[in-house]
From TrEMBL:
Originating species: Promicromonospora vindobonensis
Annotated protein name in UniProt: Nitroreductase family deazaflavin-dependent oxidoreductase
Entry-linked Gene3D superfamilies: Electron Transport, Fmn-binding Protein, Chain A (2.30.110.10)
InterPro entries: F420H2_quin_Rdtase, Split_barrel_FMN-bd
Length: 157
């Protein structure tokens, strides 16, 4: 998360980690996934729980967003070695990693936001500190967000 992210938002985003730590990640369904990645310097495995913006039942592909942008440690690790395992509360499975281009990312963000219905204003308030600007949910804002915060797809290998 960006340095200007409020502490309460950091705590809210960390809540799903506790469920995974206690073996209850499956309760979150396909809404969150646990990513296991390997440190680019240490070679040590790390895990992080990420919200899923899109899940394709046919292919098993899940798309997440890097709330810290290009500087997220998990993203830097994936870029360095590409090794990823993904879990939806069960045993982690090896996954292929793909960075979405801007147009596909905008399409994912549009559908994700539409899924919030009347709660879209709340989502926009949550996205603003991550984006680093007042996110209003316009097409221009979605494109700017997609260019600031990468969207990454994980597909079972």
């Amino acid at each position: 998360m960006a340095a200007h992210t409020p502490p309460w938002l950091k705590k809210a985003f960390a809540a799903p980690n506790a469920l995974y730590r206690h073996g209850m990640g499956g309760m979150l369904g396909r809404r969150f996934l646990q990513l296991t990645h390997v440190g680019r310097k240490t070679g040590v495995e790390h895990t992080v729980v990420l919200e899923v913006l899109r899940y394709d039942k046919e292919s098993g592909e899940a798309v997440v967003i890097s709330g810290l942008g290009e500087g997220a440690q998990w993203l830097l690790n994936l870029r360095a070695n590409g090794a990823a395992r993904v879990s939806f509360g069960r045993s982690p499975r090896r996954a292929e990693v793909r960075l979405l281009d801007t147009d596909e990312a905008v399409a994912v963000l549009t559908r994700y936001e539409q899924g919030y219905g009347i709660l879209r204003p709340v989502l926009r308030k949550l996205l603003s500190p991550l984006a680093g600007f007042d996110y209003r949910g316009t097409d221009e804002d979605r494109r700017r967000l997609a260019e600031t915060l990468p969207l990454i797809a994980f597909r079972p290998a």
